[in-house]
Design goal:
- The complex is a heterodimer.
- In chain A, helix 3 (about 40-55) packs parallel to helix 5.
- Chain A contains nine helices and no strands.
- Chain A has helices at about 10-15, 20-35, 40-55, 60-85, 85-110, 110-130, 135-165, 170-185, 185-195.
- Chain B is mostly helical.
- Chain B has one domain: Arp2/3 complex 21 kDa subunit ARPC3.
- In chain B, about 70% of the residues lie in helices and about 5% in strands.
- A two-stranded antiparallel sheet of chain B has the order 1-2.
- In chain B, strand 1 (about 25) and strand 2 (about 30-35) form a beta hairpin.
- Classes of the chains: A mainly alpha, B mainly alpha.
- At the A-B interface, helix 4, helix 5, helix 6, helix 7 and helix 8 of A face helix 1, helix 2, helix 3, helix 4 and helix 6 of B.
């Protein structure tokens, strides 16, 4: 149900360590926002676009992933045309689209486990300060992945129950039971986690 | 934080994911279809309170960032965060926190029902609309260069839909509060 947006592949960008990619994304966004020059932004846009489309995604997949974000960018650009001079609008659009291409490229070439390893490292300082427990974050993430299919099945059951009684399917009559039924499981799940001694406290 | 709170946070994040899988509801009198997921912020604050609600949304944003297609319509990944509406997504945790603070402050057991409805609605509107737009709109304006005033005026178009969402979230939150109250047990 929740398949990650990672795409199998062995391009040079796939092989780059996550940290390098994330730092590159950060530096790219900082430098793109620092410049207004179309002579820098247009090549950056083409380069990021080329990078994204060379990752092994099919064209349709590739377009579907960034399509919605591009749609918003273009709508806002259309509004901007009335308010700002044309070169400025072009710079804004190229900059954002370059960033979105690069960000989508990082997402498509990084596995969830690679991200999680990096996040665990990033959380270490917070852990040392006693603010949180890095293991808890992975545990919570695992719980989400584990329970989404269950909760979706519950949603379908409630929807079927509505149909069987001839009731219209309204968000209100679905959300209430869905949340109560789901959160009522919290005690048993928590007991199961503690019984296995996952959190050692 | 005890294990139960951790589980509640994870389960709520999972509920928000599922709300994104539910097909959007179209209502006759509003042109934009309503995605159940966008009520998640209001529901999180009103149902599991400020701290846990905010953590549930931090977890949810983490899911988006590591490339799971958890946003409604199967979207996700860093591209969405880099786009114009990234500020709204990052603002969810703060919005859920404020919603929760107001709900915790105003909702008590043994109040007349109408007071509780009023409290949940106030929390949903202030947290889920005012705070969220206060973060999302300036962000959008900064990223896309659209002047702040124009961006703010444009977002007014979404306010009627948002008020409707707040009303639905209020009724749902009150139903959960009556059936399985979690708000009073503060994390």
């Amino acid at each position: 149900m929740l398949t990650s947006l990672y795409v199998e592949g062995n391009s040079w960008f796939h092989r780059l360590p996550v940290r390098a990619k994330l730092i590159a994304l950060l530096l790219l966004s900082l430098s793109l926002f620092a410049t207004q020059s179309l002579y820098l932004l247009a090549p950056a846009f083409l380069l990021c676009g080329w990078l994204y489309f060379s990752l092994g995604l099919t064209l349709r997949q590739a377009v579907a992933r960034v399509g919605f974000v591009f749609f918003t960018i273009l709508v806002l650009a259309a509004v901007n045309l009335f308010l700002l001079p044309l070169p400025e609008v072009a710079a804004l659009v190229l900059r954002l689209m370059a960033l979105v291409f690069f960000a989508a490229a990082v997402t498509a070439t990084t596995t969830i486990s690679a991200f999680m390893d990096e996040i665990t490292i990033l959380l270490k300082p917070l852990e040392r300060m006693g603010l949180l427990n890095a293991a808890d974050v992975s545990l919570a993430l695992g719980l989400v992945l584990r329970f989404v299919p269950d909760i979706f099945a519950r949603y379908e059951a409630i929807r079927e129950a509505h149909r069987a009684r001839g009731l219209p399917i309204r968000p209100l009559t679905i959300i209430g039971p869905l949340i109560i039924l789901t959160l009522k499981d919290a005690d048993t799940i928590a007991a199961a986690i503690d019984a296995r001694g996952f959190r050692r406290q | 934080m005890n294990t139960r709170d951790l589980v509640l946070i994870a389960l709520f994040a999972a509920i928000v994911v599922v709300l994104g899988l539910i097909p959007p509801i179209t209502l006759g009198f509003i042109p934009v279809p309503i995605t159940a997921q966008s009520m998640g912020v209001m529901l999180a604050g009103c149902i599991i309170g400020a701290k846990r609600g905010a953590l549930a949304f931090l977890l949810f944003v983490l899911l988006v960032a590591i490339g799971l297609p958890v946003l409604s319509g199967g979207r996700g990944g860093l591209a969405v965060l880099a786009g114009p509406s990234g500020g709204f997504i990052l603002g969810w945790a703060v919005a859920a926190y404020v919603t929760g603070l107001i709900a915790e402050r105003f909702i008590h057991e043994g109040q007349p029902e109408s007071r509780q409805f009023g409290g949940f609605f106030l929390a949903s509107v202030v947290g889920g609309i005012v705070v969220l737009y206060a973060i999302g709109v300036p962000w959008l304006s900064a990223v896309t260069g659209t002047p702040l005033l124009a961006a703010a005026t444009g977002s007014l178009a979404f306010i009627p839909g948002d008020l409707l969402k707040a009303a639905i979230a209020t009724l749902a939150a009150r139903a959960v509060y009556a059936g399985y109250p979690l708000l009073p047990v503060r994390a």
